[in-house]
Automatic annotation (TrEMBL), chains A, B:
Classification via SUPFAM superfamilies: NAD(P)-binding Rossmann-fold domains (SSF51735), Winged helix' DNA-binding domain (SSF46785)
Lineage: Bacteria, Bacillati, Actinomycetota, Actinomycetes, Streptosporangiales
Species in which this protein is naturally found: Acrocarpospora macrocephala
GO biological process, one term: response to redox state
Protein name, per record: Redox-sensing transcriptional repressor Rex
Quaternary structure (record): Homodimer.
Amino acid sequence: MIRRIPQARERGIPDATVARLPLYLRALNGLAERGTATVSSEDLALAAGVNSAKLRKDLSHLGSYGTRGVGYDVQYLIYQISRELGLTQDWAVAIVGVGNLGRALANYGGFVSRGFRVAGLLDADPAVVGDHIAGLTVEHSDGLEAVIRKRGVSIVVIATPATAAQQVCDRVIAAGVTSILNFAPVVLTVPDGVDVRKVDLSIELQILAFHEQRKVSGGPMMAEDWAGEAG
Amino acid sequence: MIRRIPQARERGIPDATVARLPLYLRALNGLAERGTATVSSEDLALAAGVNSAKLRKDLSHLGSYGTRGVGYDVQYLIYQISRELGLTQDWAVAIVGVGNLGRALANYGGFVSRGFRVAGLLDADPAVVGDHIAGLTVEHSDGLEAVIRKRGVSIVVIATPATAAQQVCDRVIAAGVTSILNFAPVVLTVPDGVDVRKVDLSIELQILAFHEQRKVSGGPMMAEDWAGEAG
DNA sequence: GTGCCTTTGTGAAGCCATGCACAAAGTCGA
DNA sequence: TCGACTTTGTGCATGGCTTCACAAAGGCAC
Ligand SMILES: NC(=O)c1ccc[n+]([C@@H]2O[C@H](COP(=O)([O-])OP(=O)(O)OC[C@H]3O[C@@H](n4cnc5c(N)ncnc54)[C@H](O)[C@@H]3O)[C@@H](O)[C@H]2O)c1
Ligand SMILES: NC(=O)c1ccc[n+]([C@@H]2O[C@H](COP(=O)([O-])OP(=O)(O)OC[C@H]3O[C@@H](n4cnc5c(N)ncnc54)[C@H](O)[C@@H]3O)[C@@H](O)[C@H]2O)c1
């Protein structure tokens, strides 16, 4: 059978598209708050900071939800993207490592706002255990596996020092977690089937520094670049 | 003259490569701490979590710093990558918005550790101004431009609420800053020549949720995926 | 010096993402 | 009902990134 109907959603949405869906969702929520009922790909793309053709191609992976000559229904598109991202259910998240960063995350309102619920705060330091943060009590990380199982935690945020991250990672995976958001500056080793995403401030700054250096070096090609290239 | 020697560093290093250099640098520092003198692309790639061919091609963009049959000299490669990233000089960074997140960032040791120095903490809230954090005093954001100019700030971290981010962004750009790290969940609009990188927790969680949803839906290929493909 | 062995640096192929450009589709006014 | 206009959905070309595979390069043992 050679016939090959390129059915949307037949299997997978490109990673690049998935990474942009939250952006579209945010832009759509902004429009919805201002009472906008429909939006064209051009306008939505502008709000999300992407090319309109890319936006349309991205949305076409979810299905054909637009109306030609009109645009997209804001509310309907919000629902479809939310459903696709799995935000119509709520996800229990545990934060391991309640130091500077862990506290900031626990207090972060935007966390809860869209489908994510902080179901546990865990730390290894007895001095921190028992602290009340954002309505939760910090528990000892000895009970990590129990917390994960009992509260149905499916996403774990690692905000421990780098030295503890792999160990915490191994434990939560053993407890059945397959989605990890890592703030520690280490490359986590995980088995197939486990997703790790990392947020790394240090890397971002270094990338900025790279470009900044090129700017201040006096234009596109500085003298040093030519050194040794003669002959 | 048709001869075209593909000299490394002739013009630009691919973005994808630049984004990985900090990863290599981190892995190399780990090796250096353990006293390793030389490392093969295979081993370094393993430590950095990438394919070894990719590592070699990345490094080849900087120059030909390896020795065939031996590998790369760890210290020398650290120096070369550092220099390429602009980490041999130190960068003055200002943090605007000293709330939960801004405080965590200010207290973050890994900031200073590699070429970045927090040169200013600024906030609009009089209740926060005057606080002492990590050896610095929080200043009022009215003086943003003055701080940037007087202390040679070239990278600004925005950790204000989303509503204030664009305004802060406009001001720091007007003050001459061309590198911004944005933590606020908004798409910043900037003129050409300004680099913005964003760190967005919410997006990362949503991407994790997407994949997690697919997993729990019943394995690698769920029934719904096959609907309509028969025949 | 010579030959073997290891490892680099890179040509080439394949893959994925981007963005243009346009036909198809649907709305809306007359 | 019809025609003009708007906007979507997508075929296609382009470009960048990744990966394989290997010739060239260099160290090292003898
Ligand atoms: N603070 C920031 O702005 C920032 C920025 C980027 C990255 N990071 C990274 O995020 C991580 C946390 O940073 P931080 O500033 O909050 O550090 P922190 O030292 O303030 O907090 C770390 C916390 O983790 C706890 N901990 C240690 N081992 C543990 C274990 N095995 N199980 C559970 N908890 C454990 C400690 O008791 C402590 O409370 C670090 O890896 C840091 O490099 C932080
Ligand atoms: N806390 C987190 O873990 C987290 C995670 C992801 C994203 N974010 C984002 O980071 C930003 C900061 O988060 P937060 O939790 O620290 O919020 P916060 O409310 O605790 O802190 C914001 C700070 O910015 C200051 N501010 C407001 N307007 C300002 C202005 N015009 N100039 C200077 N300072 C100003 C406020 O006075 C306050 O101190 C928010 O946009 C948030 O969405 C936070």
